[in-house]
Every structure is written in C-alpha cells, then in structure tokens.
Amino acid sequence: MVILTSATSSANAFLYTGSRYLFALAQNKQAPKFLLRCSKTGVPYWAVLCTASISLITFLSVGSGGAATAFTWFQNLTTIASLFTWCSICVAYIKFHSALAAQGVDRNTLVFKSRFQPYTAWISLGFFVMIILFNGFDVFVGENHSHWDVTSFLTAYIGIPIFFLLYGFWKIFKRTKWIPSADADIYTGKAALDAEDGQWPDQKPRNIWEKIWFWIA
C-alpha cells in the first residue's frame, strides 16, 4: 500500500510538472499552440493529455517481455532525457562563462559563482556524454556479439536521435542562429534577481566546520 501510494503521488507530481512545462513552452512559442488551450478552471488539458500519453508504454507489459520490458523503456528514456538536460545545463554555463569574458564582466561581481570554472563544467559535460554513449554498452559485448538485442539497443539509445532531431527541427524551422559570446544577452532579468538577493544577508561561519562547509558549498 505504501509503495502504491508513493508511486501514485510521484506520477501525479510529474504529470503536473510535465504538463506545465509543455504549457510554458507553448507560451514561449516553442511548442504547438493547441497546448495553450485550458479548461474553465485553468487546466491545460491538451498539455496534460500529451504528458500522460507517455504512459501508453506500460502496455508493453502485456507483450512477451512482460513488465520488465516496459520498465526498461521507462528507465532508459527518463535516464537519457535527464542526462541531456544536464548536458544542456553544462553547455549553457560554458556559453555564459564565455559571454562574461567576451563582454569584460568580472566573475567576482556575481552574487553566486562556483569554483574551478569553466573546467568543472567541461569535465561534467564529458562525464554525462560518456554515460549517454555507454548506457547500453552491454549489447555490444560478448563473443560474436552474443549479447546483441535490438530492443535493448533501442531502449538504450533511442533518446539520442530524438534529442538531436528535435534540436535540428527547431534550428531549421525557426532559422535560429548560434549567438556569438560578445552579443549574448546576459543582463535581462538581472536587476530583479539582484534586488531579491539583497533581502538575504550573507551568513558568517561560526566555527571551523561551517568555514569548511561554506568553502565547499
């Protein structure tokens, strides 16, 4: 009962957040307009239906592979999607760091900054790419590729072409260009964030342990 309740709660939370992400993308004109349609109570029902449609993969459990096949598909799709998200975050930060340098902005003037950048961003990006590429390595091993399985290969790597097809479609359809670091907009919204940051005074370490923790964090 506890597991069922937890699973239902988690599914409900992700259905909510996923549908709102689609709705926000539609508001930014990065997703089809029909996703903006809402009920009288403000529920974006088309976005909810599109988000819920991924659950149709569960019908794979009635096939020869059983529930394990459906779970493997979910596991790999969500894992690859999450890894590509982190890759995008790393690339965005690397580009942001480059824009700061190109526009002569001192990183010491930033409210928040992390150490050893941009090297740690590059290292993290490398690790994420490595995990994506070796996510399904087991299908390539074994004598005479004895472990080869088409289903296992697809579940492990189908997320890669999906990501690049969507990215390529957007670049071609919208004809967007890669913005040079010197022209990147790094100031929009900065004033509001700076004003909000002023409401939180800096904490001073009270002992050696807090000094160590503040240095790490």
UniProtKB/TrEMBL annotation:
Gene3D superfamilies linked: Amino acid/polyamine transporter I (1.20.1740.10)
Broad class of where this protein is predominantly found: membrane
Domain Amino acid permease/ SLC12A: 2-177
Membrane topology annotation: Multi-pass membrane protein
Transmembrane annotation, as ranges: 43-62, 74-96, 116-134, 154-173
InterPro entries documented for this protein: AA-permease/SLC12A_dom, APC_YAT
Keyword Ribonucleoprotein: no
Compartmental location: Membrane
One of the record's GO cellular component terms: membrane
Coiled-coil parts of chain: none
Keyword NAD: no
GO molecular function: amino acid transmembrane transporter activity
Pfam families: AA_permease
Keywords from the UniProt entry: Membrane, Transmembrane, Transmembrane helix
PANTHER family registered for this protein in UniProt: AMINO ACID PERMEASE (PTHR43341), AMINO ACID TRANSPORTER (EUROFUNG)-RELATED (PTHR43341:SF39)
Protein name (Swiss-Prot/TrEMBL): Amino acid permease/ SLC12A domain-containing protein
